[in-house]
């Protein structure tokens, strides 16, 4: 069976421990206003404008986003990077989009990589049927699990879905004994205020324990903004800068003071 990917990143250092190969699977059930990979959201192949400028001239063509790979082809990529992966305590990461949207392909790939001795990470929005999530648990070394907002109404306004399933699935994974790093994107005018961050921290504190020890705070950046024009879409999030480093450090310290380890991925 084949899966549809929109990118593969070698030497990835922000997608789990060590140096990794990250596979970006296409398709996502959410539609976050700030998404910096908007070309990933549509399941199936899609088109994006490619603009090349030579001097005064502009050349516009359409590029296809999405290419099919078998799990074995993905493994071949990692095998070439294996010395770096092993030396750094790294592995492979399945990201997206939402990798669980291609559940059968993801499961088959995870089984193959684990059989070959790789540390496997699944980077997920948590918005997936619980039965599917349970199937991948035995083959997933670590989940990078996004929590965006505790207020379900605010969550729906900005992402298109409520957070009920996401929070339920977080508890399901912890009950199943999974290792989880919760990733919190810090987003101006959405969740970067103290009240929203405190709500997330207060929700997570009772869950702290064996499986949930690490938190990662990811500052918003507008790097995906230019892609919206190429997709013929409007960037609906607004004109925000990244949160100040001092503010990010303050948030990190609050999580440390609450007993979490703060990591950089
Ligand atoms: S969950 Fe991630 S990939 Fe999906 S829309 Fe949101 S930011 Fe984009």
Overview of this structure, please?
By secondary structure, this protein is an alpha/beta fold. Helix content is 33%, strand content 27%. The chain has nine helices and eleven strands. It has helices spanning 71-80, 82-88, 103-115, 130-136, 152-159, 164-175, 194-204, 225-230, 245-257, and strands at residues 2-12, 20-25, 46-54, 57-65, 67-70, 91-95, 120-124, 142-146, 180-186, 212-219, 261-262. The strands form two sheets. It has a nine-stranded mixed sheet. Strands 3-4 form a two-stranded antiparallel sheet. β6, α3 (103-115) and β7 form a beta-alpha-beta unit. α1 crosses α3. The longest helix is centred in the middle third of the chain and has 13 residues, at 103-115. The protein binds iron/sulfur cluster. Iron/sulfur cluster (SF4) binds at residues 28, 30-32, 35, 37, 40-41, 96-98, 125.
Chart the SSEs and their pairings.
Layout: E1 2-12, E2 20-25, E3 46-54, E4 57-65, E5 67-70, H1 71-80, H2 82-88, E6 91-95, H3 103-115, E7 120-124, H4 130-136, E8 142-146, H5 152-159, H6 164-175, E9 180-186, H7 194-204, E10 212-219, H8 225-230, H9 245-257, E11 261-262
Parallel strand pairs: 2-6, 6-7, 7-8, 8-9, 9-10, 10-11
Antiparallel strand pairs: 1-2, 1-5, 3-4
Bound molecules: iron/sulfur cluster.
Iron/sulfur cluster (SF4) is lined by residues 28, 30-32, 35, 37, 40-41, 96-98, 125.
